[in-house]
Amino acid sequence: MVGLISRKAGQAFWSSVFVIAGITAAVATFDTANAQPKKVIELFTSQGCSSCPPADHLAERLVEEDKDVLTVLMPVDYWDYLGWKDTFASPVHSQRQRAYAARRGDRSVYTPQMVINGEEHVVGSRENEVRSALARTEPFTATVDMKISDMVVQANVEGVLPKGAKMATVYFLRIEDEATVEIGKGENAGKQVKYVNVVRNMQPMGMWSGGSETFRMPKSKLMLKGDARCVILIQVEDQQGPGMIIGAAVMDWRGGL
């Protein structure tokens, strides 16, 4: 009888060890190496715009040199009629740029245009003006801890909303980290232009009202096109459209940032 009890006790012990090990392994499948930029630049650009390549090159340098700044490209489609259809352009990007202009009240829509933290805009090829605008930004009020498992993209958001704001949208962006395009027609015909951090898809994960909250989405959304870099943006939003960006995180689930 004593021997039987001992065997059962031993079996129970090892069963509990296996369960704990399984839980530990499940937790360990999350990749948590993510960067926490302090500022965000959106470059509205076009392959059909002759003024854009200098801004595209500046964006590349910013990505390489300044890890505190997240620079992403939002290629627009409204110059496609000039003879070259932008291979990355999306009407969603064009609409986002117009929404920014409408909210600001200046109706200023052009390329290359950089929008800093969802608010101030500058000509994207004027480096001094870009850096001055970056220096004027307010600190983020939200922190984002991004994790990716075999199945799930998870964003843990903590912080407070700016005064007067009621809600913020948690956006998930799928990013193509690098691509070189040979432009065959239009204003940039014959040029080979390198693009970095091109936004290929942008969709909301949910709405955040401050405090601590977790948002999840299937990892399959990240793998649809084979892109491996993803971004989370926390952006104040209301009936007037997108406003101040107050938090961000970026991760490359292949293992590097």
Could you walk me through the main structural features you see in this protein, from its secondary elements to its overall organization?
This protein is of the alpha+beta class. Helix content is 26%, strand content 39%. The protein is built from five helices and eleven strands. The strands form three sheets. A four-stranded mixed beta sheet has the order 2-1-3-4. It has a four-stranded antiparallel beta sheet with strand order 8-7-10-11, covered by helices on one side. The radius of gyration is 22 Å and the shape is globular. The protein starts with a helix and ends in a 5-residue tail after the last strand. 37% of the residues are buried. Mean pLDDT is 87; it is low at 1-30.
Question: How is the secondary structure organized here?
Answer:
Layout: H1 2-28, E1 39-45, H2 53-65, E2 69-75, H3 91-104, E3 113-116, E4 120-123, H4 127-135, E5 142-148, E6 152-159, E7 168-182, E8 192-208, E9 211-218, H5 220-223, E10 229-238, E11 241-252
Parallel strand pairs: 1-2
Antiparallel strand pairs: 1-3, 3-4, 5-6, 6-9, 7-8, 7-10, 10-11
Give, in order, the helices and strands: HEHEHEEHEEEEEHEE
Structural class: alpha+beta
| CATH architecture descriptor | 3-Layer(aba) Sandwich
CATH superfamily: Glutaredoxin
- Ends distance: 59 Å
Instruction: Tell me the fraction of residues in β-strands, as a range.
Output: 35-45%
Poorly predicted runs are: 1-30
- CATH class reads Alpha Beta
Gross geometry: globular
Helix content: 25-40%
Give the biggest sheet.
4 strands, mixed
User: What is the CATH topology assignment?
Assistant: Glutaredoxin
User: What value does the Rg take, in angstroms?
Assistant: 22 Å
Secondary structure: number of strands: 11
The domain tally reads 1
